[in-house]
Design goal:
The protein is α/β, with parallel strands linked by helices and 64 residues long. It is built from two helices and three strands; from the N terminus they run βαβαβ.
Length: 64
Amino acid sequence: MRLEGKKAVVTGAAMGIGRAIALAFAREGAIVAAVDLDAAAAKETARLAGKETFAITADINNCA
């Protein structure tokens, strides 16, 4: 596992490329924060990824 002990924050993790990246990082051993505005879909990504992944609901569109 190439990312064992590493941490990753993935935005847009509810679907598409963001979900794929979150799942790939988790498969490689990273602890993953799956961030998305869609809480239910972010939680589903975390469930699919496994125990070292958790969901965060956030809107980062207006971050300065």
